[in-house]
Amino acid sequence: METPRTHDLLAIADLVRDGRATSRGMIGRQLGLRSTTVSDLVGQLVARDVLHESTLRSRSKGRPAAVLSFNAHRLGAVFVTVIDQTLVACAVDLNLRVIGTLSAAPPHLSDNDALIAALRRLVADTAALFPPETELCAIVCSLSGLLDVPRSTWCVSSRWPNMRNLDLGQALAEFACRVWLIRNLDAELAGLRLYERHGAEETALLLHWGHGIGAAFAAGGDVVNRNRGRSCEIGHWRLGNGQNRQCTCGNTDCLETVAALWSIGPKLAQDFPGLPQSEREIAAHLGHADLLDSTVVRKALSEMLRLTANLCRLLFPDRVILTGPFVQNPDIFGRFVEALSDAPILRSLDKVRVSVGDGHLAPEIAGALSEPFAQALADMVSCDGKVRPMP
Ligand SMILES: [Zn+2]
Protein backbone atom coordinates (compact mmCIF):
# COMPACT_ATOMS: atom_id res chain seq x y z
CA MET A 1 0.00 0.00 0.00
CA GLU A 2 1.27 3.43 -0.92
CA THR A 3 1.32 5.73 2.11
CA PRO A 4 0.62 9.49 1.73
CA ARG A 5 4.34 10.12 2.32
CA THR A 6 5.38 7.69 -0.42
CA HIS A 7 2.78 9.27 -2.69
CA ASP A 8 4.27 12.74 -2.10
CA LEU A 9 7.83 11.48 -2.60
CA LEU A 10 6.88 9.90 -5.95
CA ALA A 11 4.94 13.00 -7.02
CA ILE A 12 8.02 15.14 -6.36
CA ALA A 13 10.31 12.72 -8.24
CA ASP A 14 7.86 12.82 -11.19
CA LEU A 15 7.74 16.63 -11.26
CA VAL A 16 11.53 16.87 -11.39
CA ARG A 17 11.91 14.01 -13.88
CA ASP A 18 9.40 15.59 -16.29
CA GLY A 19 11.10 18.98 -16.01
CA ARG A 20 8.04 20.58 -14.42
CA ALA A 21 9.98 21.58 -11.30
CA THR A 22 13.62 22.40 -10.65
CA SER A 23 13.31 23.99 -7.22
CA ARG A 24 11.63 23.45 -3.87
CA GLY A 25 9.44 26.51 -4.46
CA MET A 26 8.09 25.13 -7.75
CA ILE A 27 7.34 21.79 -6.09
CA GLY A 28 5.52 23.40 -3.17
CA ARG A 29 3.34 25.51 -5.47
CA GLN A 30 2.37 22.60 -7.72
CA LEU A 31 1.67 20.08 -4.97
CA GLY A 32 0.21 22.52 -2.47
CA LEU A 33 2.69 21.48 0.25
CA ARG A 34 4.25 23.64 2.99
CA SER A 35 7.86 24.63 2.41
CA THR A 36 9.12 22.73 5.47
CA THR A 37 7.39 19.55 4.22
CA VAL A 38 8.86 20.00 0.73
CA SER A 39 12.34 20.49 2.17
CA ASP A 40 12.01 17.37 4.30
CA LEU A 41 10.79 15.23 1.36
CA VAL A 42 13.35 16.60 -1.10
CA GLY A 43 16.05 15.94 1.51
CA GLN A 44 14.97 12.28 1.64
CA LEU A 45 15.06 11.96 -2.15
CA VAL A 46 18.51 13.58 -2.31
CA ALA A 47 19.72 11.22 0.44
CA ARG A 48 18.49 8.27 -1.62
CA ASP A 49 20.22 9.66 -4.68
CA VAL A 50 16.93 9.87 -6.61
CA LEU A 51 17.38 13.63 -6.95
CA HIS A 52 20.59 15.58 -7.37
CA GLU A 53 20.94 19.07 -6.07
CA SER A 54 23.39 21.61 -7.39
CA THR A 55 23.78 25.21 -6.34
CA LEU A 56 23.88 28.00 -8.86
CA ARG A 57 25.58 31.20 -7.88
CA SER A 58 22.81 33.77 -7.91
CA ARG A 59 23.44 37.11 -9.62
CA SER A 60 21.68 39.00 -6.90
CA LYS A 61 22.84 38.92 -3.33
CA GLY A 62 21.47 36.39 -0.92
CA ARG A 63 21.44 32.63 -0.82
CA PRO A 64 22.52 30.76 -3.97
CA ALA A 65 19.61 28.95 -5.70
CA ALA A 66 19.47 25.15 -5.41
CA VAL A 67 18.62 23.40 -8.68
CA LEU A 68 17.12 19.93 -8.54
CA SER A 69 17.57 17.28 -11.24
CA PHE A 70 16.37 13.68 -11.55
CA ASN A 71 18.98 10.91 -11.39
CA ALA A 72 17.85 8.64 -14.25
CA HIS A 73 20.79 6.32 -13.54
CA ARG A 74 19.63 5.57 -10.00
CA LEU A 75 17.79 2.42 -11.16
CA GLY A 76 18.06 0.35 -14.30
CA ALA A 77 16.16 -2.54 -15.83
CA VAL A 78 17.14 -5.19 -18.33
CA PHE A 79 14.44 -5.53 -20.98
CA VAL A 80 14.39 -8.79 -22.96
CA THR A 81 12.35 -9.33 -26.09
CA VAL A 82 12.28 -11.65 -29.10
CA ILE A 83 12.91 -10.29 -32.59
CA ASP A 84 12.71 -12.82 -35.40
CA GLN A 85 14.77 -15.81 -34.14
CA THR A 86 16.82 -13.74 -31.68
CA LEU A 87 16.67 -12.80 -28.00
CA VAL A 88 17.37 -9.06 -27.75
CA ALA A 89 18.19 -7.39 -24.42
CA CYS A 90 18.41 -3.66 -23.67
CA ALA A 91 19.83 -1.89 -20.62
CA VAL A 92 17.25 0.83 -19.89
CA ASP A 93 17.45 3.73 -17.42
CA LEU A 94 14.66 5.43 -15.47
CA ASN A 95 14.03 7.85 -18.35
CA LEU A 96 13.36 4.80 -20.57
CA ARG A 97 16.57 5.60 -22.45
CA VAL A 98 18.31 2.57 -23.93
CA ILE A 99 21.94 2.58 -22.80
CA GLY A 100 22.98 -0.46 -24.78
CA THR A 101 21.59 -3.49 -26.63
CA LEU A 102 22.90 -7.04 -26.92
CA SER A 103 21.46 -10.14 -28.54
CA ALA A 104 21.75 -13.91 -28.53
CA ALA A 105 20.45 -16.45 -31.03
CA PRO A 106 19.79 -19.81 -29.38
CA PRO A 107 19.35 -22.50 -32.08
CA HIS A 108 15.76 -23.30 -33.14
CA LEU A 109 15.87 -26.71 -31.41
CA SER A 110 17.19 -25.41 -28.04
CA ASP A 111 15.55 -26.95 -24.95
CA ASN A 112 14.86 -25.28 -21.59
CA ASP A 113 18.42 -25.68 -20.29
CA ALA A 114 19.98 -24.19 -23.42
CA LEU A 115 17.57 -21.24 -23.37
CA ILE A 116 18.15 -20.64 -19.64
CA ALA A 117 21.92 -20.60 -20.19
CA ALA A 118 21.55 -18.16 -23.11
CA LEU A 119 19.19 -15.90 -21.15
CA ARG A 120 21.41 -15.79 -18.05
CA ARG A 121 24.46 -14.87 -20.08
CA LEU A 122 22.54 -12.25 -22.05
CA VAL A 123 21.05 -10.63 -18.93
CA ALA A 124 24.41 -10.61 -17.10
CA ASP A 125 26.21 -9.04 -20.09
CA THR A 126 23.45 -6.45 -20.55
CA ALA A 127 23.36 -5.54 -16.83
CA ALA A 128 27.12 -4.95 -17.04
CA LEU A 129 26.47 -2.07 -19.50
CA PHE A 130 25.04 0.11 -16.69
CA PRO A 131 27.32 2.57 -14.90
CA PRO A 132 28.48 1.13 -11.55
CA GLU A 133 26.21 3.41 -9.50
CA THR A 134 23.05 2.04 -11.16
CA GLU A 135 21.07 -0.51 -9.17
CA LEU A 136 19.42 -3.23 -11.25
CA CYS A 137 15.80 -3.20 -10.09
CA ALA A 138 14.02 -5.41 -12.64
CA ILE A 139 14.40 -7.87 -15.46
CA VAL A 140 11.42 -7.51 -17.76
CA CYS A 141 10.79 -10.22 -20.35
CA SER A 142 8.46 -9.12 -23.15
CA LEU A 143 7.85 -12.34 -25.03
CA SER A 144 5.75 -13.88 -27.73
CA GLY A 145 4.02 -17.24 -27.51
CA LEU A 146 1.94 -18.49 -24.63
CA LEU A 147 2.75 -17.10 -21.16
CA ASP A 148 1.62 -17.72 -17.61
CA VAL A 149 2.30 -14.28 -16.14
CA PRO A 150 1.32 -14.98 -12.50
CA ARG A 151 3.83 -17.87 -12.44
CA SER A 152 6.48 -15.99 -14.50
CA THR A 153 6.43 -18.91 -16.90
CA TRP A 154 7.09 -18.92 -20.64
CA CYS A 155 4.93 -21.88 -21.64
CA VAL A 156 5.28 -22.30 -25.41
CA SER A 157 7.04 -20.49 -28.25
CA SER A 158 6.89 -21.46 -31.91
CA ARG A 159 10.47 -20.13 -32.32
CA TRP A 160 11.89 -22.66 -29.85
CA PRO A 161 9.46 -25.60 -30.07
CA ASN A 162 11.50 -27.79 -27.66
CA MET A 163 11.12 -25.23 -24.87
CA ARG A 164 8.23 -25.95 -22.47
CA ASN A 165 7.08 -24.14 -19.31
CA LEU A 166 10.29 -22.25 -18.65
CA ASP A 167 10.09 -20.68 -15.17
CA LEU A 168 11.78 -17.32 -15.80
CA GLY A 169 11.55 -16.25 -12.13
CA GLN A 170 13.61 -19.28 -11.15
CA ALA A 171 15.93 -19.14 -14.18
CA LEU A 172 16.88 -15.52 -13.42
CA ALA A 173 16.77 -15.71 -9.59
CA GLU A 174 20.55 -15.20 -9.32
CA PHE A 175 20.14 -11.54 -10.31
CA ALA A 176 18.38 -10.78 -7.01
CA CYS A 177 15.79 -8.48 -8.51
CA ARG A 178 12.18 -8.89 -9.52
CA VAL A 179 11.51 -10.69 -12.80
CA TRP A 180 8.50 -9.44 -14.75
CA LEU A 181 6.84 -11.13 -17.67
CA ILE A 182 4.53 -9.52 -20.23
CA ARG A 183 3.25 -10.56 -23.65
CA ASN A 184 5.14 -8.48 -26.24
CA LEU A 185 1.97 -7.32 -28.01
CA ASP A 186 0.40 -6.28 -24.69
CA ALA A 187 3.55 -4.27 -23.89
CA GLU A 188 3.55 -2.63 -27.32
CA LEU A 189 -0.12 -1.66 -27.06
CA ALA A 190 0.34 -0.33 -23.50
CA GLY A 191 3.23 1.81 -24.79
CA LEU A 192 1.32 3.01 -27.86
CA ARG A 193 -1.52 4.10 -25.57
CA LEU A 194 1.01 6.32 -23.75
CA TYR A 195 2.81 7.57 -26.87
CA GLU A 196 -0.35 8.30 -28.87
CA ARG A 197 -2.19 9.62 -25.80
CA HIS A 198 -5.25 7.38 -26.15
CA GLY A 199 -8.18 8.54 -24.02
CA ALA A 200 -9.02 6.53 -20.89
CA GLU A 201 -12.25 5.24 -22.45
CA GLU A 202 -10.83 4.69 -25.92
CA THR A 203 -10.64 1.10 -27.12
CA ALA A 204 -7.76 -0.03 -29.31
CA LEU A 205 -6.92 -3.20 -31.20
CA LEU A 206 -3.30 -3.94 -32.10
CA LEU A 207 -2.92 -6.53 -34.81
CA HIS A 208 0.44 -8.00 -35.80
CA TRP A 209 0.83 -9.77 -39.14
CA GLY A 210 4.36 -11.12 -39.54
CA HIS A 211 6.22 -14.35 -38.74
CA GLY A 212 3.28 -15.05 -36.46
CA ILE A 213 -0.16 -13.47 -36.20
CA GLY A 214 -1.48 -12.07 -32.94
CA ALA A 215 -3.37 -9.21 -31.38
CA ALA A 216 -3.88 -7.25 -28.18
CA PHE A 217 -6.91 -5.25 -27.11
CA ALA A 218 -7.19 -2.30 -24.73
CA ALA A 219 -10.41 -1.19 -23.05
CA GLY A 220 -11.32 0.51 -19.79
CA GLY A 221 -7.94 2.22 -19.55
CA ASP A 222 -5.76 -0.90 -19.75
CA VAL A 223 -4.73 -3.80 -21.97
CA VAL A 224 -7.20 -6.63 -21.50
CA ASN A 225 -5.78 -9.71 -19.73
CA ARG A 226 -2.23 -8.37 -19.57
CA ASN A 227 -1.85 -9.72 -16.06
CA ARG A 228 -2.46 -13.23 -17.34
CA GLY A 229 -0.42 -13.07 -20.56
CA ARG A 230 -3.00 -14.89 -22.62
CA SER A 231 -5.27 -13.19 -25.07
CA CYS A 232 -6.19 -12.82 -28.73
CA GLU A 233 -4.41 -15.97 -30.00
CA ILE A 234 -5.96 -15.22 -33.36
CA GLY A 235 -3.12 -16.79 -35.34
CA HIS A 236 -4.39 -20.15 -34.11
CA TRP A 237 -8.06 -19.66 -34.91
CA ARG A 238 -9.16 -22.64 -36.93
CA LEU A 239 -10.11 -21.96 -40.53
CA GLY A 240 -11.82 -25.31 -41.10
CA ASN A 241 -10.66 -25.21 -44.73
CA GLY A 242 -10.01 -28.97 -44.83
CA GLN A 243 -6.45 -28.58 -46.12
CA ASN A 244 -4.96 -30.43 -43.16
CA ARG A 245 -1.88 -28.20 -42.97
CA GLN A 246 0.22 -28.65 -39.84
CA CYS A 247 0.57 -25.58 -37.60
CA THR A 248 3.42 -24.85 -35.16
CA CYS A 249 0.95 -25.14 -32.26
CA GLY A 250 0.24 -28.82 -32.95
CA ASN A 251 -3.19 -28.27 -34.53
CA THR A 252 -4.00 -28.16 -38.21
CA ASP A 253 -5.46 -25.47 -40.45
CA CYS A 254 -4.94 -22.51 -38.13
CA LEU A 255 -4.96 -19.04 -39.73
CA GLU A 256 -1.15 -18.99 -39.54
CA THR A 257 -0.92 -21.96 -41.91
CA VAL A 258 -2.16 -19.77 -44.78
CA ALA A 259 -1.14 -16.26 -43.73
CA ALA A 260 1.90 -16.15 -41.40
CA LEU A 261 5.35 -15.50 -42.81
CA TRP A 262 6.63 -18.81 -41.42
CA SER A 263 4.16 -20.67 -43.64
CA ILE A 264 3.97 -18.51 -46.78
CA GLY A 265 7.63 -17.40 -46.71
CA PRO A 266 8.93 -19.99 -49.24
CA LYS A 267 6.20 -19.18 -51.81
CA LEU A 268 6.65 -15.49 -51.17
CA ALA A 269 10.38 -15.84 -51.90
CA GLN A 270 9.50 -17.35 -55.31
CA ASP A 271 7.35 -14.31 -56.16
CA PHE A 272 9.82 -11.81 -54.67
CA PRO A 273 13.38 -13.09 -55.17
CA GLY A 274 15.98 -12.07 -52.58
CA LEU A 275 13.40 -11.87 -49.78
CA PRO A 276 15.36 -11.31 -46.53
CA GLN A 277 14.76 -13.18 -43.25
CA SER A 278 13.99 -10.53 -40.67
CA GLU A 279 10.61 -8.80 -40.44
CA ARG A 280 12.18 -5.33 -40.57
CA GLU A 281 14.17 -6.11 -43.71
CA ILE A 282 11.17 -7.77 -45.34
CA ALA A 283 9.14 -4.62 -44.65
CA ALA A 284 11.74 -2.55 -46.53
CA HIS A 285 11.98 -5.14 -49.33
CA LEU A 286 8.20 -5.32 -49.88
CA GLY A 287 7.41 -1.68 -49.08
CA HIS A 288 6.81 -0.66 -52.68
CA ALA A 289 6.44 -4.05 -54.38
CA ASP A 290 3.27 -4.99 -56.28
CA LEU A 291 2.21 -7.37 -53.54
CA LEU A 292 -1.33 -7.77 -54.84
CA ASP A 293 0.05 -9.47 -57.99
CA SER A 294 1.09 -12.40 -55.81
CA THR A 295 -1.48 -15.18 -55.39
CA VAL A 296 -0.11 -16.25 -52.02
CA VAL A 297 -0.31 -12.67 -50.69
CA ARG A 298 -3.85 -12.18 -52.03
CA LYS A 299 -5.03 -15.37 -50.28
CA ALA A 300 -3.32 -14.44 -47.02
CA LEU A 301 -4.67 -10.90 -47.24
CA SER A 302 -8.24 -12.03 -47.77
CA GLU A 303 -8.06 -14.17 -44.61
CA MET A 304 -6.48 -11.30 -42.68
CA LEU A 305 -9.14 -8.82 -43.84
CA ARG A 306 -11.96 -11.18 -42.89
CA LEU A 307 -10.37 -11.78 -39.49
CA THR A 308 -9.87 -8.06 -38.82
CA ALA A 309 -13.41 -7.12 -39.83
CA ASN A 310 -14.78 -9.92 -37.63
CA LEU A 311 -12.64 -8.81 -34.69
CA CYS A 312 -14.03 -5.31 -35.14
CA ARG A 313 -17.58 -6.68 -34.97
CA LEU A 314 -16.63 -8.46 -31.76
CA LEU A 315 -14.67 -5.71 -30.02
CA PHE A 316 -15.74 -2.43 -31.70
CA PRO A 317 -12.35 -0.73 -31.28
CA ASP A 318 -12.04 3.04 -31.75
CA ARG A 319 -8.57 2.45 -33.17
CA VAL A 320 -6.97 -0.37 -35.11
CA ILE A 321 -3.16 -0.34 -35.17
CA LEU A 322 -1.58 -2.67 -37.72
CA THR A 323 2.02 -3.84 -37.39
CA GLY A 324 4.37 -6.18 -39.23
CA PRO A 325 6.04 -6.18 -42.67
CA PHE A 326 2.97 -6.54 -44.95
CA VAL A 327 0.97 -3.54 -43.75
CA GLN A 328 3.91 -1.19 -44.42
CA ASN A 329 3.01 -1.64 -48.09
CA PRO A 330 0.50 1.11 -49.06
CA ASP A 331 -1.62 -1.20 -51.27
CA ILE A 332 -2.07 -3.66 -48.41
CA PHE A 333 -2.75 -0.93 -45.86
CA GLY A 334 -5.32 0.59 -48.24
CA ARG A 335 -7.19 -2.73 -48.37
CA PHE A 336 -7.47 -2.78 -44.57
CA VAL A 337 -8.84 0.77 -44.47
CA GLU A 338 -11.33 -0.12 -47.22
CA ALA A 339 -12.44 -3.35 -45.52
CA LEU A 340 -13.14 -1.58 -42.25
CA SER A 341 -14.88 1.44 -43.70
CA ASP A 342 -17.06 -0.57 -46.12
CA ALA A 343 -18.28 -3.23 -43.71
CA PRO A 344 -21.98 -2.89 -42.87
CA ILE A 345 -22.56 -2.53 -39.10
CA LEU A 346 -19.11 -0.95 -38.76
CA ARG A 347 -19.98 1.67 -41.36
CA SER A 348 -22.87 3.00 -39.27
CA LEU A 349 -20.60 3.72 -36.30
CA ASP A 350 -17.96 6.35 -35.73
CA LYS A 351 -15.13 5.83 -38.16
CA VAL A 352 -12.48 3.41 -36.93
CA ARG A 353 -9.05 5.06 -36.93
CA VAL A 354 -6.70 2.71 -38.76
CA SER A 355 -2.95 3.31 -38.48
CA VAL A 356 0.34 1.48 -39.02
CA GLY A 357 2.94 0.95 -36.27
CA ASP A 358 6.52 1.52 -37.40
CA GLY A 359 7.93 -1.51 -35.57
CA HIS A 360 10.35 0.42 -33.39
CA LEU A 361 11.01 -0.96 -29.92
CA ALA A 362 10.34 2.27 -27.99
CA PRO A 363 6.59 1.73 -27.35
CA GLU A 364 7.14 -1.89 -26.32
CA ILE A 365 9.88 -0.83 -23.89
CA ALA A 366 7.71 1.95 -22.43
CA GLY A 367 4.72 -0.37 -22.06
CA ALA A 368 6.78 -3.13 -20.48
CA LEU A 369 8.85 -0.99 -18.08
CA SER A 370 6.42 1.69 -16.83
CA GLU A 371 4.96 -0.48 -14.07
CA PRO A 372 8.19 -2.21 -12.97
CA PHE A 373 10.01 1.14 -12.69
CA ALA A 374 7.09 2.79 -10.85
CA GLN A 375 6.99 -0.15 -8.43
CA ALA A 376 10.77 -0.17 -7.88
CA LEU A 377 10.86 3.60 -7.24
CA ALA A 378 7.93 3.31 -4.81
CA ASP A 379 9.68 0.44 -2.97
CA MET A 380 12.90 2.40 -2.80
CA VAL A 381 11.50 5.70 -1.53
CA SER A 382 9.29 3.95 1.01
CA CYS A 383 12.10 1.89 2.58
CA ASP A 384 15.63 2.65 3.71
CA GLY A 385 16.87 3.30 0.18
CA LYS A 386 19.90 1.06 0.57
CA VAL A 387 21.78 0.48 -2.68
CA ARG A 388 21.80 -3.16 -3.61
CA PRO A 389 25.07 -4.21 -5.23
CA MET A 390 25.03 -5.12 -8.89
CA PRO A 391 25.24 -8.86 -9.52
ZN1 LIG B 1 -1.91 -23.12 -34.70
What is the CATH topology classification name of the largest domain?
A: Nucleotidyltransferase, domain 5
The percentage of residues in β strands lies in 15-25%
* CATH architecture level-2 label of the largest domain: 2-Layer Sandwich
Number of strands: 15
Small molecules (ligands, ions, cofactors) in the structure: zinc ion
Major sheet summary line: 5 strands, mixed
How much helix, percentage-wise, in residues? 25-40%
Order of helices and strands: HHHEEEEEHEEEEHEHEEEHHHHEHEH
The low-confidence runs, each spanning 5 or more residues with pLDDT under 50, are 385-391
Helix count from the secondary structure assignment: 12
Radius of gyration: 24 Å
User: Which CATH first-tier class of the largest domain would you pick?
Assistant: Alpha Beta
Distance N to C terminus: 28 Å
- The side-by-side strand order for the widest beta sheet comes to 5-4-3-6-10
Shape: globular
Overall pLDDT metric: 90
Q: Domain count, please report it.
A: 3
CATH superfamily of the largest domain: ATPase, nucleotide binding domain
Based on the model shown, name its key terms.
five-stranded mixed beta sheet; 12 helices; Nucleotidyltransferase, domain 5; globular; alpha/beta; Arc Repressor Mutant, subunit A
